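Figure caption, in words: inputs first, then the predicted bound structure.
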Amino acid sequence: MGAVLTELHRYAEEHFAIEEAYMEVLAFPERAPHFRAHEKFRAEIAAISASSMKDPAVRELTAMFLREWLTRHIYGIDKVLEAFILESDLK
Ligand SMILES: [Fe+2]
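Bound structure (fe (ii) ion present):
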């Protein structure tokens, strides 16, 4: 796996693990679609890692796409979760 993908994967897993723990503990009402979004990202990373994408330029382009996806996720549905956490007693 390329360095960019490795770092993206590591960052995403840390980020997802923390959020998923909060969603479970707080019984976040929208956790099912949020979990699905995380799983979709995991599947994309796994597919890239297992693929025969040997061209470094294509791999880097794909990594850029996933990084953009993650950024949109963080500034999108993660904000809904953040607001929910901040309203909870566990903040
Ligand atoms: Fe998330």
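The radius of gyration is 15 Å.
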